[in-house]
Fold this protein.
Amino acid sequence: MPKRKAAIAVGGVAALGAAAFLLPMANASQNGASGDTSAAGPKVLKASDASDLASQLQKLLGDALAGSYYDSNSKQLVVNLVSGDNNVILQAKKAGAAVRQVQNSTAELQAAAKTLKAKATVPGTAWALDPKTNKVVVTADSSVTGAKWDRVESTVKGLGSDMATLKKSAGKFTTKVSGGDAIFSQVQNGNVRCSLGFNVKAKDGSPAFLTAGHCGVAAKDWSDSQNGQPIATVDQATFPASDFSLVKYNDAQTQAPSEVNAGNGQTVQITQAQDATVGETVFRMGSTTGLHNGQVTGLDATVNFQSETDPGGVDTVNGLIQTNVCAEAGDSGGSLFTQDGGAVGLTSGGSGDCTAGGETFFQPVTAALQATGATLGDGGAGAGAGAGAGDQAGGDAVGGSADPSASAGDQAGAGDQSGAGAGAGDQSGAGAGAGAGDQSGATADPSATAGDQSGAGQSGNGQAGTGEQSGNGEQSGNGNQSGNGAGNGSSSTESH
């Protein structure tokens, strides 16, 4: 295959208005940031700098620190302290953080999470540490009813209202495949579709990429087009417990640039991996739904997915990042990143969609890199857009204006994906669902519209095929697909 096709750049589908909104802000510093560590008061910080400061204070203050979050309005890092020691408070303030006293320590919140694990591990539940409320926030999806709901509710009440809260999610927690260019694998029951996360260098120096663990467990060989020849092979895959895979390119000379392809010829260089900070704005790329943004709402989240292999089982994933960013089927494994080039997460799963909204959980990139021994870095500068992002209907999306107020129009954004046609539909295993087309929320700029993204396998009215998926997430129908614009009614793609 051509070398350009092998160089998959992350995030091949983007709404043009969103890309125009994002890129001018990349690498921009906030006014008023100061390197003066002698000033005993909160400093104005970029979110990435706030994340770095939070890590430093965790080492400095130890158990006295009960979490922190980024206040996007004041652009300050707020730290929770359980110690009233004036020396501890002074150290936090001198470092540049805003300080507040809280009741629950991190150890106490983690103990509450262990109680939930022991007593409330049922499919469709999730919990995360929320530093803004200094509590564990428990979420139950629409499948948690009857005795299951009573079990979760009584466990939360037993922890006390000052320690934990319970809320309902309208959707259903499912694993997703998300974030970047579409990747495909042929398996016994059809095709599996996921998204590429971030290009990396494996421990042995070979080019590779990260994606979701449940994708790597589902299939071993991956292609950049449906029914295409494999270009990469799973080297390591972890799911459940964690949710990441390291996939090595078969050609050791593959150019694998460390960048996010934001569409319309624009890219964001990925320069570092960083931990998430509650309150910061993050961006997600998906091969189904394009570019979306939102905020980090919780850390160290646990999600209990209904097992896809055991009808009565639970797939529990720990240590995730919780956000209010939407995602849909086909988005799993894709990239969560910051506007200044920080790699934050890989799409794992969640509930809702990009029409009604929802919540999505992400595997931290830092943990995936540490476990696999891979590193972020430019494996091939100048490789340009890769498979999936390339061959975009003559090279340009229709109506390709960079004006944030312009519609993205009829994008062939997913590129010449040999009739991928994996519609957004419903999430894997969730049954019938609506198509992802005409999503007003598909860009970071509310004035821009995602339009009919043919790259996501959508027909002119925004539906993929029939707009329905079977209960196991396999797509049926013959909707207009990217590539030749016509689907193959006999094929099926399971989107994660």
The first strand starts at residue 65 and ends at 71.
